[in-house]
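# step 3/5: fold
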Amino acid sequence: MGIGTLTTTPASDDTLISRVEFPDNRLLIDLCGAHDAHLARIEAAFSVQILRRGNELHLLGELDARSRALDVLSALYARLADGRGLEAGDIDGAIRLGAGQPAGAEQLEMFRTGQIEIRTRKKPVVPRTAAQQAYTRALFEHSLNFGIGPAGTGKTYIAVAVAVHMLAEGKVDRIILSRPAVEAGERLGFLPGDMKEKIDPYMQPLYDALNDAIPGRQLAKLMEERRIEIAPLAFMRGRTLANAYVVLDEAQNATEMQMKMFLTRLGEGSRMVITGDRTQVDLPRGVPSGLVAAERILQGIDGIGFSYFTSADVVRHPLVARIIEAYERQGQG
């Protein structure tokens, strides 16, 4: 289903009005959002004005701004026509891709057509950027893959979605998710409670990703059966992980010895994903990051993949990308 007939008509002060007609008014309602909230986000992002007239949208503004806004509207409408819903993150993701012309045009087309979709037990996960799509392909192609880049780029979220997909498809027997228990200088002993209560705050991002991929009761049953395990990195020593999908998150906080120990846990029929951000190392001063060392040592080894992300791939709030870019500029200055 296409977006409809697009026409432009001249207005005062040499400004053009773009008028676009949508064939399905029900989808147009979803496109606009509650109280036209989606349209308001697009208006603010591209400095255009969008007016709704029946099953048409009228856009006022500069030609380039209108063109980009129309590309975003087209991509979002096509997603709806394909039976996929729209969340706030989808709107922001499409806006960022549309604002990144000319490279954004190709990425918007992938966003529009959903060329890659990861089916989990709860909902399909669609990578939104070219880097995310390449990362997803790499997770299916390599037994061991590194995802390296800033926060909010979907490294862990996509890895967990692929893990759930492979578990559902019978490609692996279990999922094991791990993180170093290192956070801004705090130590487990300073937290109240038993060992599980001490560990859970460090593991919460992994629980969040799982809760987005598996309904609550199913997740509880899978964890009770130990088909899904969440454990700190220190608990991995001495284990051989066969027929498992293993994810190490926040790997920049693993030491070189911990990283070597973890990598050598890979067993027959297993897959392993290492994710991390080299700019957010919380290890004590003078302790080298195992992620940085592994990236240097393992480059070029057959069967090991490296996927890289930038601030352009951030899929959280749009301000997150701007914050990362600001810090990157400061670091370069």
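# step 4/5: annotate
Residues 63-81 form the longest helix (19 residues).
# step 5/5: archive (pending)
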